[in-house]
Amino acid sequence: MSERAVTKSTRAPGRPRSERAEKAIIEATLDLLARESGVAGVSIEAVAARAGVGKTTIYRRWPSKEALIVDALGTAKAPLPEPSGASVREDLLEIARALAAERGRRHSRCFWNVVGSAEKHPELYARYKQNIIEPRRAIVRDVLRRGVAEGELRADLDVEVAMSMLVGSLTPRRLREPVPEGYADAVVDTLLKGIGAVRD
User: Fold this and answer.
1) Which long-range contacts (CB under 8 A, 24 or more apart) does 94-101 make?
2) pLDDT tens for residues 171-187?
3) CB atoms < 10 A from the CB of 6, how many?
4) Where are the alpha helices (H) located in the chain, listed in sequence order?
5) DSSP code, position 63
6) Taking 50 as the threshold, does the pLDDT of residue 1 lie above it?
7) What is the mean pLDDT of the chain?
8) Over the stretch 49-79, which tens digit does the pLDDT of each residue have?
9) Closest CA relative to residue 32, chosen from 49, 17, 54
10) CB atoms near residue 172 (< 10 Å)
């Protein structure tokens, strides 16, 4: 048997080592970010120690603490569903339900710790907003603009205000309070009462 064959046959089963290390690093980052110390408590040294990896392993993937935190937060947010285009209401319901479903306690703490530290860590917040928040908001804007163009929504609709009303209503505020059943649907239907096109 060749040396290559021996190496292949004795390789440990499961995920590749690099993938396991990356997952451990991401989880360690989120765990630290969710603590009371928030962003201040996250450092490459602390993440490395918690994940059981060397600092060089982290630096090979992320050039800075800010880049690591933004990537970690990105994994905590599942992509919003691509709207089906059936109707504005159906599209907004899909989006609202997805937003409501991601109200995990740890992620909520991470989110508010980053937002709350925007003044002290402006570069981090700017990256978080640009890479994670804005692409999601763009999906909502597109649905609302299509609704205006197709006559489902008011012609004078302020898209930014309507988008903020929807997203803001589903932003995790109370870490211990579960989302009531039907809440996302109620948010959409209440919003549509105000922004829907007036029918003759």
Assistant:
1) 95/139, 95/140, 95/143, 95/166, 96/166, 96/170, 96/184, 96/185, 96/187, 96/188, 97/184, 97/185, 99/167, 99/170, 99/171, 99/184, 100/170, 100/179, 100/183, 100/184, 101/179
2) 765 444 667 789 999 99
3) 10
4) 3-9, 17-33, 44-51, 55-59, 65-76, 88-101, 105-116, 122-128, 134-149, 159-169, 183-195
5) S
6) no
7) 86
8) 999 999 999 999 999 999 999 999 988 877 7
9) 49
10) 18
Q: d(Cα 46, Cα 83) in Å, to the nearest integer?
A: 40
In sequence order, the 6+-apart residues with CB closer than 8 A to the CB of 116 are 38
**Residue 3 in this model has a pLDDT that exceeds 70:** no
d(CA 139, CA 144): 9
pTM for the complete prediction?
Answer: 0.77
Calculate mean pLDDT across residues 126-148: 93
What type of residue sits at position 116?
G
Contact 73, 108 (CB under 8 A): no
Q: CA-CA distance, 72 to 53, in Å (whole number)?
A: 16
- What's the pLDDT score for residue 43? 95
